[in-house]
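4.2 Preliminary Data

To establish feasibility before requesting continued support, the project team ran the inverse folding procedure on a target of 424 residues. The structure was first converted into the token representation described in Section 3, and no sequence information of any kind was made available to the design step. The complete token record follows.
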């Protein structure tokens, strides 16, 4: 009986092709909107999670921050300038690493030297010059494609050696990596020239090599250039003090608990008598979870907006079904006179509504996928809805057919056969 109803539904739909298409259009637009939104949202989510993941899911960051009022918990509009005693010292960091040995694998330290331009005649390259210790360099996850990484001895001695990006090599050495290795580059810092020897070249990517490059020409992209941490400290002529540092957690460690333990330890031991400052820490893993939750919320909000058009499409289906029943009143009367039950009539028209929504849903999925792929390509992201998501959307469109088709189908089933046969 179900197959017979489907055949009848298809015959009825084919008899009014234009009206059927216009009826489906609302469903197609609604499903396509939801699918396209899910595709774009997945692409944005994948891109964001990838960038944050590249920063290190096992990284916890700690900062020197203003201490709130112990009684009110509020922050003052005025806080005194930080002094040497307010910063993290090498002794403090060594103590933290020893105290939490087995829970942390190392402490990552960095010093930003300058954002500057490296020039060679008319050629130039924009760089963000930064000093890193061995742990920070390891956490950068640089893909060294020529030369080598900085050695422990170079870190210890603060040698004037540097790792640069392949973009810098393209700009200054016409892409000749072998020519670049061992060459000297000069940077101007506080009106003084500092020379560095290139020992390694890494493959540039936004997550590990420099500033985000949206709207910037390939030649002008600012990439990272990394020197030993002690080299940076010497050139900045600063004390070996830090306003922030990163802790690398051991695999499997509960980062939420570890961040809390380290923060409590630092504040109790080193900042309990400090009148203005304290330590604050957060986990990158927790930040990623928070970001993922926020992106999911945004996706659901966008899908809800897209679903409004699907609702309009469903009302369109109901409207057309009511019109169709009015036109086919004599047909319904004839079927009833020949013995068709109310249930059979009801099922026939519900089937017709479901078929309309099902076909519209399938077309909507295809259109939505195409729009989603195009949007992701324009935004340079990659993402696609899962098979389960597609199945849910198609089932949802069929459910719409049942929901919006029930009222007109029930109306048809309750028609009096005698009155229906007299209908003109």
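Position-by-position output of the design step:
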């Amino acid at each position: 009986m179900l197959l017979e109803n489907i055949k009848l539904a298809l015959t009825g739909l084919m008899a009014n092709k234009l009206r059927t298409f216009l009826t489906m259009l609302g469903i197609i637009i609604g499903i396509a909107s939801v699918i396209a939104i899910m595709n774009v949202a997945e692409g944005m989510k994948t891109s964001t999670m990838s960038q944050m993941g590249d920063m290190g899911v096992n990284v916890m960051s700690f900062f020197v921050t203003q201490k709130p009022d112990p009684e009110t918990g509020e922050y003052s509009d005025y806080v005194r300038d930080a002094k040497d005693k307010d910063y993290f010292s090498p002794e403090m960091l060594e103590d933290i690493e020893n105290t939490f040995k087995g829970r942390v694998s190392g402490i990552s330290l960095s010093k930003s030297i300058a954002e500057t331009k490296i020039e060679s005649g008319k050629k130039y390259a924009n760089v963000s010059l930064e000093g890193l210790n061995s742990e920070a360099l390891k956490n950068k996850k640089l893909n060294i494609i020529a030369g080598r990484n900085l050695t422990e001895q170079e870190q210890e001695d603060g040698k004037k050696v540097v790792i640069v990006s392949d973009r810098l090599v393209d700009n200054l050495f016409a892409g000749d990596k072998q020519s670049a290795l061992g060459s000297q580059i000069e940077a101007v810092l506080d009106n003084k020239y500092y020379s560095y020897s290139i020992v390694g070249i890494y493959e540039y990517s936004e997550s590990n090599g420099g500033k985000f490059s949206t709207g910037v020409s390939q030649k002008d992209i600012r990439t990272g250039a990394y020197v030993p941490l002690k080299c940076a400290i010497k050139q900045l002529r600063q004390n070996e003090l830090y306003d922030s540092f990163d802790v690398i957690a051991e695999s499997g460690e509960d980062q939420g608990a570890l961040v809390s333990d380290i923060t409590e330890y630092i504040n109790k031991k080193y900042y309990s008598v400090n009148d203005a400052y304290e330590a604050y820490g957060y986990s990158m893993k927790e930040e990623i979870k928070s970001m993922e939750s926020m992106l999911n919320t945004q996706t659901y909000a966008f899908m809800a907006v897209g679903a409004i058009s699907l609702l309009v499409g469903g009302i369109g289906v109901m409207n057309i079904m009511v019109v169709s029943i009015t036109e086919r009143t004599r047909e319904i009367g004839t079927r009833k006179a020949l013995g068709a039950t109310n249930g059979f009539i009801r099922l026939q028209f519900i089937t017709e509504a479901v078929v309309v929504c099902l076909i519209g849903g399938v077309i909507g999925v295809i259109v939505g996928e195409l729009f989603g792929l195009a949007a992701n390509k324009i935004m340079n992201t990659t993402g696609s809805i899962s098979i389960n998501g597609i199945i849910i959307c198609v089932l949802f469109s069929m459910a719409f057919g049942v929901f919006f088709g029930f009222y007109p189908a029930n109306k048809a089933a309750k028609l009096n056969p005698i009155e229906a046969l007299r209908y003109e």
